[in-house]
Each structure stands twice: as C-alpha cells, then as structure tokens.
Specification:
The complex is a heterotrimer. By secondary structure, chain B is mainly alpha-helical. Chain B contains three helices and no strands. Chain C is mostly helical. Chain C is globular, with a radius of gyration of 24 Å. The chains are: A mainly alpha, B mainly alpha, C mainly alpha. At the A-C interface, helix 1 and helix 3 of A face helix 1, helix 2, helix 3, helix 4 and helix 9 of C.
C-alpha cells in the first residue's frame, strides 16, 4: 500500500499538489478584494514555484550539497544548481513584498481604504 | 516512512493554509497564519535537501511577517 | 467576492491539474538521478567545484563564483527595491516622533523585566550567529544573504521593542539606502579589481593579491563579494522597515 502511494506521489502527486498550490495563489490574486491578501497570495504562488524547482533537483540517494571527505561522484549529492537559483528568488521576493507594502500604504493614504470595491466604486464592472 | 510521503503531507498542509488565507476575514490572524505557512514551507525545503534555501526562508519569513504586522497598524484590520 | 470570479479561477486550477495528469511524460519522477535536470551542467559543478573554487559548500560555489553575475544583479535588484520604497512613500509625511510616547496604561506591558532581559540576551546571540554564518558560508551552510538578514533582524528587534531606545544606533532611511549602495559598490569593485591585473570582470584568479594557489584567490574573492551582499541585504531590509515604520501611527 505504502509503495503504491510512494510511486504515485513521485510520478504525479507532488507535481499535482504544487500546481494546485500555484492555482490557489492565482485564485487569491484574482478573487480577493483586499490588497493585503493579494500580496500574501502572491507570496503563496512564489513558494509553489520555488518548490517546483527544488523538487526537480532532488535525488533519491543524495545527501546535502556540502562536500564530505571521501565521498565522490555526482550521484552522491543533491543538485546544487536549483538551490542557488532559488536562494536569490527568495531574497528578491522580500524586496517585492516591501515595495508592495509601500504602495499599499500610499494607496491607503490617498484613498483611505485598501478594499478594491471601495476604491473603484460601485458598478465599475457593469 | 519515506521522505516523499512526508513531502506530500507538508504540501497538503500548505494547500490547507492557502485556502484559509484566501477565505479568512481578520488580517492580523491571517498574518500569523502566513508565518505558519512560511514555516511549513521551510520544513518542505529541508525535506527536499535544500538546507540553504530553508535557512533563508526561515529568516525571510520572520522579516516579512514583521513587515505585514507593521503595515496592519495603519490600515483597517477587518476585510470584506 | 462574487461567485463568477471563484468559478473562473477554479477552472484555471483544474486545467493545471488536468494538464499534469494527461501529460505524464513531460516531467521526470521526483528523485530521479538520471533526469535531464540532474545530468549535464550540475554534474560538472558537483565534481569540480572543490578544485575550482575551494568552497566546500557547492551552493556558495555556484552562487558566488560560477554564477557571479546572477548574484550581482540580484543585489542590484534589492538596492532598487529599497530605493523604490523610499521614492513611493517620500511624499507622505512622517509621523511626529514626539507623539510616539507610549501612553501610561500600556507602559507596563512594554517594559517588563522579562521582555527586557530576554531581548538583552537574544540580540547579541543573533549578531554573533550572523557573523558565524557569514564566515562559514564557504565551508558549511549559510552565506551572505542569511547573515545580512540576521543582522537586520537584530536591528529590527532593537527598533521595535520600545524600552530598548535604539541602543544599536538609529539609521535613517536615507542612510540605509546609501549603505545599500555601498554594498553594491563593494561587489562591483571586487569585479573590477582583476581587470587591473589583466583579467576579466569577476575573474578571481587574477585578483592582485599574492597567493600560491588559485583556490586561495577564489576564496578571497568569494569572501569579498559576500561582504558586499551582507551590507546590501542588511541595509535594504532596514531601509524598507524604516520607510514603513516612520509613517505608521502607533495609537496604543
């Protein structure tokens, strides 16, 4: 039983859940009326994309990508390239969060609210 | 118990937290839940073997939670 | 939010999941050591990074040495993020500091002995740990980003706990933006130094310091650019914190 679950997860399940997480992030960015929740959902989407890259670089028998004495060969270590790329992506996500919060406070100062419907007014959709 | 089943469990947790964030109403509570989200994400990164990325995520999750809480002070806590 | 939006977005999610189910051969199985991602370039990185760069941690070797340009422009992006936050909010008036006094009924909850002692113990440990992480970025886990963020957390605790009264020093937002620029400048200077010695931009073997092995020069170069990254990341986080904090009214 556990073997079947493992094989399913390794071949499809992990990717399916990652895509669902990304879809939930997009859903939040589209459907939430509050700008702060939009920023949080943007971060959720970023986490899913980062995990997608890390899952691609995983190896079943590998250890952490720090050199160990007398342990040679490419198969012994997890792929370090996605880690290096995603490390920068996480730090940049903090920068985007900061700029987004600054814009949020500017919107609050000008309009007095951060609800999308109150800013755009009633009936803009019709 | 293999690593990949644990990964699936943590991903399920992340999906549940994401649904809570989308449908929640209290922004301060949602910010704390967002902190839990980034912590679960950190556990997930450790399971994939990316210890450097997990370290960064732990630190950055704390900092972005503090940013959110400071910003909440000047805006309305309840949302529609 | 209306039902139309939710239904429309749920269709996107279902389409994404269905795409993964119906196209099983596009993505390799998780944990497959033979997949294309794990085959060509990363094999070279794993096998040769210790010889080439002298860094035990392969992530640091890839980040700071093989892909130095990536990190350079990522540092620039952080600098730009700090400046952008400053520009967006610069026309909004700051909250008057004299009104920032904590009012009497709340004063006891912010100045307890437990809180004070706890942060007096925690802040030095965080700073020491940050320097440890920075210095051991080559040989074990850690590096410039984490060290910069940890230093910023120490400043942040100092700034937010009201009883502390900024004992680590008070950085204005303009000073923080300038410090971030200094960090980017250190990084670019490290890249320019080999050019005086006849090398290319960021070519660490041509750094003008006398050393016997090329790996030693690589270590020096990695440490130098990590200093730039630490300064830039720390100053940017402090910059955004100050920009947001100076314009927030604390009414309680």
């Amino acid at each position: 039983m556990i073997d079947i679950i493992e094989t399913f997860l390794a071949e499809k399940g992990i990717y399916m859940m990652t895509f669902v997480l990304m879809g939930l992030g997009i859903l939040g960015m589209i459907s939430c009326g509050n700008y702060m929740k939009k920023i949080m959902c943007m971060n959720i989407m970023q986490v899913s994309i980062i995990f997608f890259f890390l899952a691609l670089g995983q190896k079943e028998q590998g250890t952490l990508p720090v050199f160990v004495e007398n342990l040679l060969g490419a198969d012994a270590y997890i792929n370090p390239l996605p880690h290096a790329l995603m490390l920068t992506a996480i730090v940049v996500s903090l920068g985007t969060t900061g700029v987004a919060l600054a814009l949020l406070m500017k919107i609050k100062g000008i309009y007095g609210t951060i609800e999308e419907e109150e800013i755009t007014g009633e009936g803009w959709r019709k | 118990m293999s690593v990949i089943i644990l990964e699936g469990a943590f991903l399920l947790l992340l999906i549940i937290i994401a649904i809570v964030i989308i449908f929640g109403k209290d922004l301060l509570a949602l910010t704390i839940i967002y902190c839990a989200f980034s912590f679960s994400a950190m556990m997930l990164y450790i399971l994939t073997g990316a210890a450097d990325v997990a370290f960064t995520e732990a630190v950055i999750g704390v900092i972005s939670t503090v940013y959110f809480i400071i910003a909440i002070k000047s805006i309305n806590r309840r949302c529609k | 939010m209306e039902k139309k939006k939710i239904i429309g977005a749920a269709v996107i999610i279902l389409a994404a999941v269905a795409a993964v189910i119906w196209a099983p051969d596009i993505l390799p199985a998780v944990g497959d050591a033979e997949s294309p991602v794990n085959s060509y370039l990363s094999t070279y990185y794993i096998e040769n990074s210790l010889e080439d760069t002298g860094a035990h941690n392969m992530v640091t070797a890839v980040l700071a040495d093989y892909r130095g340009f990536d990190t350079l422009f990522e540092t620039c992006v952080m600098f730009l993020a700090g400046i952008t936050a400053l520009m967006v909010l610069s026309s909004t008036a700051k909250v008057d500091k004299s009104q920032r006094e904590i009012q009497e009924p709340y004063k006891a909850s912010f100045s307890g002995t437990v809180l004070d002692t706890a942060f007096r113990v925690v802040v030095p440990i965080i700073v020491i740990y940050a320097f440890y992480v920075f210095a051991h970025g080559e040989t074990s886990l850690g590096g410039g980003f984490q060290a910069g963020a940890l230093l910023a957390i120490a400043y942040m605790i100092d700034r937010i706990i009201p009883n502390f009264n900024n004992s680590l020093g008070n950085m204005t937002e303009e000073a923080a933006a300038m410090t971030a620029g200094v960090g980017v400048f250190i990084y670019i200077l490290t890249g320019l130094l080999p050019m005086f010695n006849g090398g290319n931009f960021l070519q660490y073997e041509k750094l003008p310091f006398g050393a016997e092995h090329a790996a030693e020069l690589h270590s020096t170069g990695i440490i130098m650019i990590e200093i730039g990254v630490v300064v830039c990341v720390m100053a940017t986080i402090i910059n955004i914190l100050e920009v947001v904090l100076e314009r927030t009214e604390f009414d309680d």
